[in-house]
Design brief:
By secondary structure, this protein is of the alpha+beta class. It has one domain. The chain is built from two helices and two strands; from the N terminus they run ααββ. A two-stranded antiparallel ribbon has the order 1-2.
Amino acid sequence: MHRTTTRFWKCFHNLSAVAQSVAKENFSLLKKNPHHPSLHFKRVGKIPVGEGRS
């Protein structure tokens, strides 16, 4: 089960309409298939970076 916080929604509403749309698509994908390759993270130096769709 995946949940969001009040802080998440505050940040979400500050995103552009395009970024919100991408976030909604990726969350929908997460609910359908949490192991989908586009939801995986890779390391760039010491920082994990999402490889998600854009």
